[in-house]
Amino acid sequence: MAGSGSDLKAQLIRDILKYEAVKFGSFTLKSGVVSPIYMDIRVCVSHPKFLTAIAEAVEQTLKAANLRFDHLCGVPYTALPIATCISTKTHQPMLMRRKEAKAYGTKQIIEGKYRAGDKVLVIEDIVTSGSSILETVKVLENAGLTVTDAIVLIDREQGGKGYLEERGINLHPVLKLSEIIDRLEVENLIQADVAQRSREFIRTVKPSLTPAAVGVGERASFEGRARSAKHPVSAKLLKFVNKKKTNLCVAIDVETTAELLELTSKVAPYVCAVKTHVDQLSDFVYEKVIPELKRLSEEHSFLLFEDRKFGDIGETVRAQYGGGVFKISEWADIVTVHGVPGAGVIQGLKSAASEKNACIIVAEMSSAGALTDDSYKKACASMVESNADFVIGTVSQSRVVKSPEFIQFTPGVNFELSGDGKGQQYVPPEVAISDRGADIVIVGRGVTRNGDPGDRARIYSERAWEAYEKATGN
Length: 474
Ligand code: S5P
Prior knowledge:
Layout: H1 5-18, E1 22-28, E2 34-39, H2 48-64, E3 71-74, H3 79-90, E4 94-97, E5 110-111, E6 119-127, H4 131-142, E7 146-155, H5 160-166, E8 170-176, H6 177-186, H7 192-204, H8 222-228, H9 232-244, E9 248-252, H10 257-267, E10 273-276, H11 286-300, E11 303-310, H12 314-322, H13 328-331, E12 334-338, H14 344-350, E13 358-362, H15 374-385, E14 391-395, E15 407-410, H16 429-434, E16 440-443, H17 445-448, H18 453-472
Parallel strand pairs: 3-4, 3-6, 6-7, 7-8, 9-10, 9-16, 10-11, 11-12, 12-13, 13-14, 14-15, 15-16
Antiparallel strand pairs: 1-2, 4-5
This protein binds 6-sulfanyluridine-5'-phosphate (S5P).
């Protein structure tokens, strides 16, 4: 397209006014709020030149952001023609989300060809709270697709960008509403007082997310996440989670092999993983512990999670992981590692691992006075993201890594106690899941030292499952 980026923007802003995609006055919105500004991009379908200009501006923003994706998807309905124009021009394939799949019975909720794990770039006309984008993201993620970026023609700057970012979606606006107002005022196309009232409105009115959009992105369904899982160990874990409808991992912290195996067989039907500290066993003999643990895990579909919390230089952890009496990499699907030593610890573990092994970074601890502050968590998050071929998530008390590709395990869960007198701090499973972003809750003594462990595991798994379902909006 001819003209510089800023000329193009200036012309687009004039067109927006000319075609009445923005109007100034006094408008009562659906919510009852009276707004000095009203926007409606749908008018573009009656003005092909205007639609073309919009599509070109969106395409330019897309190119400038250097985004990589497999499909474009316009949020229905206004962004559909915009996405279509870009798709036909750039030959990038499109997906279409239906809003009314149920009424059509057998029809797909997403039209178009795709594979689980494909990356989708969402296109939207206007963002206020970001709810419409999030509702579309939810449908896409439930189908196993991944969304990390969205392009919007106009960001109304009323909080949507922040809501989207909190949920792992980067928003790229072509225009900000304040830019439109400023430009129209400079060009004397609107009066100063109109501009001022509009600015004041944007600044003070911040709509919240719709109920359908709350929790989206933070919490895609386990089915969708299983379909898009990239690492074989997360795929296996999420398969078990869905099959058994449990997001409970029981920590069996005991000192004898007999207790470990007995408790494991009791909780087995209710867990997606059993977490061990095999170095606590006073009578550990590999042949007496590991084959039986493996047999139980295969029979009852759960992962073996050795909570070794490696924390040394790469070469040392390599030897600790693959060797010694425990030979952890031979049998543990998952191990924990501290981020303290830096990236080398991951490299060391990787060198003793196969594709059947994965690790989880302990990014934040449940214990009182833990030194895992924000900058530490951030550093751990980037270690997770840059080692996705081996690291499948975090042990943490908050959503340290936003992308639903990574799994958050949260210990310090107990619905009867608030602590153990030795620094451990507890919250009930509902709080771990809804407030702290847990995917899988880790419960130790709440299950193993309290009445019938099998029944306790059932109760914890039901409560954790229900809380997760609620968080996804199901
Ligand atoms: O921050 C943490 C990290 C872990 S892995 N806090 C924890 O408590 N854990 C582990 O979770 C801990 O090692 C123990 O095995 C389990 C919690 O056990 P509980 O009996 O306090 O529920």
